[in-house]
Specification:
TIM Barrel, alpha/beta, four-stranded mixed sheet, seven-stranded parallel sheet, 2 domains, Glutaredoxin
Length: 448
């Protein structure tokens, strides 16, 4: 049985002889050939070359062709800020000052869609018989945020009808893009919507249930599988997400995987995740990654589970760590025996914390995975920097990315368990929830 057959059997809820493995490589594939993130996301030949090499080295059962949540936004008028070692971020929001509902649906000959669709077809021809290929699109809520900015969170209170209409439009955009990807040969269509973790179950039911049911019903009508990707601590939303009818939920390290599977099993859908991106995959050893993989495999049983990273892997994730997971998946018992006496080394870094009791001015710290790669982290960081624009030199704002080892220590010392989190003067204020402008302004004024 090849990897694609194994993935299909997983999505059909069958018991399996081994756990399927899907590395969400994204721009990390560029590292295999020395290409920057910008090169692999703008040049089709380089992207294809790196994907083929990743398929050869990482032993994937399933593989995404591209992991970039800004493709649709770029066509719809958002300017992007490009990076050498991360996907682009949205720099401008065309609806920030205009509560309109666009009519434009991206065409498959616009923006980077021709490049993406060409690479999808080439990958289908090259590895499509043995590897299940994922076509990932930007989910409606995150796309709406790209277009409207953080104003969207206030709109949910001030103008719910507008939010309903905007999300319905964004769902139509997703469906159009899904059709392009299905036509290009994708086996699984993933709706990647990091910001879902930032709303309550009640808000999800009010705003997201209808558009997502429409999305997943449409994908099912096309005869392909679907996956619902979320980042951050979306524990509270797992049940309502499951009710929208995806074939799979993909979750990150903020969520207890064992407890989450109890929810998804209730709906007989697959759960995918959730190896730690930074602490393990980016900063750990090959043995750390193999140990994490076999521990999760041992916990999750023989059905309705696909092993994967928590999300899109950082560019600098060492290839040997990903290779090691692929090896562990293929022979769990041999790997377990190899690691019998292995113990993970603790970080030995002396980190000086701010003297919170004697700060010159209030300090907002945004603890993130990385605002350049995590949409929820990016919008929380933007919300904090918006306060800098309001209060100027009266406050300080800093992002603490756990891609930097010293910030892992900081997160532990602050007792933070979930990312992104916002801390004001050493006190945890907002955990996996992006505050609206008035909420955050009031929190800052309270300490001025």
């Amino acid at each position: 049985m090849n990897g694609k057959e194994l993935i299909y059997r997983a999505f059909n809820n069958e018991s399996l002889e081994r756990t399927p493995w899907v590395p969400y490589t994204g721009v990390q594939v560029g590292k295999l050939r020395g290409y920057s993130a910008e090169e692999v996301l703008k040049e089709g030949d380089k992207l294809y070359e790196c994907l083929v090499e990743a398929n050869r080295q990482y032993s994937p059962d399933g593989q995404p062709v591209i992991f970039d949540l800004q493709v649709e936004a770029e066509v719809l008028g958002c300017d992007l800020l490009w990076a050498e070692d991360a996907p682009p971020t949205v720099k401008t929001h065309p609806l920030a000052d205009s509560a309109e509902i666009p009519a434009k649906i991206p065409a498959k000959d616009e923006g980077r869609f021709p490049l993406i669709l060409d690479v999808m077809k080439r990958m289908k021809e090259t590895v499509g018989e043995t590897t299940a290929l994922y076509g990932l699109g930007c989910g409606p809520f995150t796309l709406a945020s790209h277009l409207r900015s953080t104003n969207l969170f206030m709109d949910m209170y001030d103008d719910p009808d507008y939010v309903h209409n905007l999300l319905d439009y964004c769902a139509d955009v997703f469906i159009a893009v899904a059709d392009y990807y299905i036509e290009a040969g994708m086996d699984i269509i993933g709706a990647v919507d990091p910001l879902i973790s930032q709303i309550s179950p009640d808000s999800f039911e009010e705003f997201m249930m209808k558009p997502y049911k429409k999305v997943f019903d449409h994908i099912r009508s096309k005869g392909v599988f679907s996956s619902f990707f979320v980042c951050g601590d979306a524990t509270k939303n797992l049940d309502v997400m499951s009710q929208t009818g995806p074939d799979c939920l993909s979750i990150d390290e903020n969520i207890n995987l064992v407890e989450a599977k109890k929810v998804t099993d209730k709906y007989n859908i697959v759960i995918s995740g959730n190896i730690q991106l930074t602490i393990c995959m980016l900063l750990g050893t090959q043995q750390d990654n193999q140990k994490a993989a076999i521990e999760k495999i041992g916990q999750m049983g023989d059905r309705n589970f696909i092993l994967a990273p928590g999300c899109d892997m950082p560019y600098d994730t060492p290839p040997e760590n990903i290779i090691g997971i692929g090896q562990a998946v293929q022979d769990v018992e041999a790997t377990r025996k190899l690691l019998e006496n292995y113990e993970k080394a603790e970080l030995d870094i002396d980190v000086k914390m701010p003297d919170y009791a004697n700060l010159e001015r209030p300090l907002i710290e945004v603890l993130t995975i990385d605002s350049a790669t995590c949409a929820a982290c990016g919008y929380m960081t933007a919300a904090a920097r918006d306060m800098k624009a309001i209060f100027g030199s009266k406050i300080d704002v800093v992002e603490r990315k756990i891609t930097e080892p010293e910030n892992i220590i900081r997160v532990g010392k602050l007792g933070v368990m979930n990312l992104p989190t916002m801390v004001i003067n050493g006190e945890v204020k907002f955990i996996s929830i992006i505050p609206n402008r008035e909420e955050l302004k009031a929190a800052v004024e309270a300490v001025l």
